[in-house]
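batch_manifest entry 22 of 60
target: NAD-dependent protein deacylase
source organism: Halomonas campaniensis
requested by: lab member K.T.
priority: normal
notes from requester: please return tokens only, no post-processing; we will run our own comparison against the previous entry in this batch. if the run fails, retry once and flag.
--- input ---
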Amino acid sequence: MAASPHLVVFTGSGISAESGIKTFRASDGLWENHPVEDVATPEAWQRNPQQVLDFYNQRREQIRRAKPNAAHKALAGLEQDGFNVSIITQNIDDLHERAGSHNVLHLHGEILKARSSVDERMRYPLLKGGIELGNVCDKGSQLRPDVVWFGESVPLFAEACDLVSQADFLLVVGTSLAVMPAASLLSYIDYDTPCALVDPEADSLSPPGVLAINTTAGEGVPALVNRWKQQGNLLLS
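--- output ---
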């Protein structure tokens, strides 16, 4: 029996925004009315760790209250129906997992985890509450959010590139393709691998050769998923 075609999905802030999660937008340089330099850089952490912790503690509670939307649920349903689905997300929330997806790679980290500030391999789930000054890892160092800040390397980028290179279809959802190095992922697909972008501004964002689907994630993703389920394959024609 032939292996199921491999759908790789690359999601950005647009899919989470439909669940009410306010996200960083490069156009104004603000994240929840904070300059990103004050809350999402290693320099901010060195300068004012309390402010950084407070910011992420508030974001964490917002994410805990949010619920997966139709796009998250559709992708999880496709996997449950036997399709081979891998998700690469720029988002630090857990909405894909809560919807039921199992193969999720968080390119920029996970806000519901803390990690050591001296050993990034030491991670701790945050089942409730947040991170406070004085919370330390097993090596005695202050815990920090397990997220990739601006100016830091992206440890899972090579793994994401490998996943993209294995795709039989690449579906990009809700991202402006502006944040590097994540935006360069599209260059790792085979030249003949079909690729589509679902976003309200897809026409202006889609690179050459990428099918633009101008709609929200909550509308466009379920429509694609239903089509694929009916056909039993990942074809769009």
